[in-house]
Amino acid sequence: MPADIQAQVQGAVDPREAAQFAAIAESWWDPDGPFRPLHRLNPARMRFVMNAVQENFGVAEGARALTGMTAVDIGCGGGLISEPLARLGADVTGLDVTEENLGVARAHAADSGLTIDYRLETAEALAASGAKFDIVTALEVVEHVPDPDVFMRAAAEMVAPGGLLIAATINRTIKSLALAKFGAEYVLRWLPRGTHDWRKFMKPSELARPLRTEGLRVLRTEGAVYEPLTGDWRLSPDVSMNYMIAAVRD
Asked: What is the pTM of this model?
């Protein structure tokens, strides 16, 4: 890693978290591998994204609904959200701090015929450059960073006037401790042990606070609920576990 980029990353990244994801990066696009929970969650995540986009921008749902819009996917990993955004017509930038993740993301995008600007960069560094986007996504990322408030303020800074930020994480509740931490990692073994630190989970009010500080208005908050009989996720008013927030810069 070049020295200047390494300097950006230090302090904005938890090295232990980065190493965990780097170790399983080759499995990003395996729907039955370590990232299986995200593959199953992805339709609900994209449904929330598109509902918020339609509400904020007034666009009609369609195959190229995001044409003409710019988007940045923070903590893009292998590209599970970056690629759907690009297929919908957005000009997408994907940020990650793990070279292994970006290598997989670039190769998969090329194989899929998609043009996505994947960068080894932090949200804090890109925000400091003055970059602005119509859509900013930070999905299942904030629980892995050292300073969530700094991270979310950087994400909010990149929202253009009239633009939209969408964040997703896990609520810090007794239910999430039992199910998202111990259940998912130790009982069901959906995730490698140590993937999450329950103390880093954030309540919706805590996630919204830095967004409001940066001048964003919360548009909607919605939960995602797992259906054990089908293995799928659906959007729900229940935010006691996984939830998503959409906020706008008026």
From this structure: 0.87
Please list the residues that pair with 92 across neighbouring strands.
71
Pairing between β-strand 133-139 and β-strand 117-120 as defined by DSSP bridges: unpaired
pLDDT at 188: 46
Give the model's pLDDT for residue 199: 76
Q: What's the pLDDT at 1?
A: 38
pLDDT of residue 196: 56
Long-range pairs for 142-145: beta carbons < 8 A, 24 or more residues apart: 142/167, 142/169, 142/202, 142/207, 143/169, 143/170, 143/196, 143/197, 143/200, 143/201, 143/202, 144/14, 144/17, 144/75, 144/200, 145/12, 145/13, 145/14, 145/17
- The β-bridge partners of 244 are 168, 222
- Closest to 170 (Cα-Cα) out of 136, 204, 138, 146: 204
pLDDT score at 8 = 42
Give yes or no for a contact between 229 and 152, defined as CB atoms under 8 angstroms apart. no
What is the rounded CA–CA span in Å between residue 208 and residue 215? 11
Whole-number Å distance between alpha carbons of 6 and 13: 10
Task: Write out the DSSP string of 98-112.
Answer: -HHHHHHHHHHHHHT
- Ranges in the chain, pLDDT < 70: 1-14, 16-17, 177-196, 198
For each of the domains in the chain, give its residue range(s) and CATH number, in order of start.
Answer: 3-148+164-248 (3.40.50.150)
Nearest CA to 183 among 234, 138, 226, 229?
226
